[in-house]
Amino acid sequence: MALPAASNTRDRRRGRRQDLRYKARIERLADGAEIACTLLDVSQTGARLVAREPEGVPDEFLLRLAVGRQAQRRCAVVWRDGASMGVRFIVEADEEL
Predict the structure, then answer these.
(1) Which residues 6+ apart lie within 8 Å of 90 measured at CB?
(2) Contact 97, 91 (CB under 8 A)
(3) Which of 27, 46, 69, 83 could link 54 by a cystine bridge, Cβ 3.0 to 4.6 Å?
(4) Is 57 a residue whose pLDDT tops 80?
(5) Residue 94: pLDDT band by 50, 70, 90 thresholds?
(6) 13: how many CB neighbours lie within 10 A of its CB?
């Protein structure tokens, strides 16, 4: 799976992004099925990733960063471009990033 190059479009993020190339998994909330992905960059409020099976990625999902349930973020997709997508982290009232 080829990773996309950085975009020349205007950056609308509020937080500073940190470039990564980190393997992660998308877990669909409806059925628990997982889709392999690569986390390309991350900020305090969201991330950019590329999914192996983008057609299976729902509008909201859990992003699993490690085996088990300890490192995860609930995400909402804010844009899609082929296999690439930008997500914002959904923060519960009692949860901090």
Answers:
(1) 60, 73, 74, 75, 76
(2) yes
(3) 83
(4) yes
(5) low
(6) 14
